[in-house]
Specification:
- The protein has 310 residues and is of the alpha/beta class.
- Helices cover 35% and strands 26% of the residues.
- The chain folds into two domains: 213 residues, P-loop containing nucleotide triphosphate hydrolases (Rossmann fold, 3-Layer(aba) Sandwich); 63 residues, 2-Layer Sandwich (Alpha-Beta Plaits).
- It has eleven helices and 14 strands.
- It is globular, with a radius of gyration of 23 Å.
- It starts with 7 loop residues before the first strand and ends in a 6-residue tail after the last helix.
Length: 310
Amino acid sequence: MTAGPVPILAEGLTKTYGGFTAVDGIDLEVRRGEAFGVLGANGAGKSSTMRMIACVSPVTAGSLRILGRDSATDGAAIRARLGVLPQDDTIDGELTVRENLLIYGRYFGLSWKVLRERSARLLEFARLEDKAGDAVATLSGGMRRRLTIARALINEPEIVLLDEPTTGLDPQARHLLWERLHRLKQDGVTLLLTTHYMDEAEQLCDRLVVMDAGRIVASGTPAELIAHHTSREVLELKFAADERQVMIDKCRGLAERMEELPYRLLLYTDDGEETLAAVNARGVRPQTALIRRSTLEDVFLTLTGRSLVD
């Protein structure tokens, strides 16, 4: 893909609904051909941000340029160069798999000749070529999701927006979808995605931001965020209910940070084996002890908390 303007450039991007500020002056720069993640709990401002970038919701304040165009004045032209994968599949159940691609492509003014060629290629890309004449109702959830991605690519977009791309899919379907998205990146397509799956963000995202209460609270590569916001390893201990508090009190001061959960104690440390030895030296005998590397989920929970947000 040829060089050109920055795919997504936002400065002071703000969205308000009445007196409520959903997105509070954020800056974003998404580079060509990268997968960029926007993470956050419910109500953090992810969806409002995605809707502004998709040019279906006006910007309240700040500037937003997509592919070098102003979202405020060039919405239609921008949308023609975007592919959008919504959180819920919206494919037409009364059409066949191939017909979903053909009919959707007509909205972009593509000729039947072009559509037949692209739909054949996209069905192969989505591994649905043997389902082309089947009714959508016969597809599994993973197949429907792959069809939705194929449909989002019918206009050969330069940017694809993915809202929770693998929600509800089984592990096999998720991994196949990840492999398809990696192929898009290799072809130079820019991906912007939201996800609740931290392992998915680590797998797919070159860079990402974490949003909380409408603001960006952290940004960087997955490795940078883990290195900056949490320890190298986590020691997870589980105790019997009748001795839990006594054992927790004995563990205090043994790690950089300690987090008490209803059924577990998390010790954040750079050396899990050393910390476990120190735990045992204090006479602490947990029911189970697990040493694992820190993950993006630890970063996310550190930054946004564990309380549910509705």
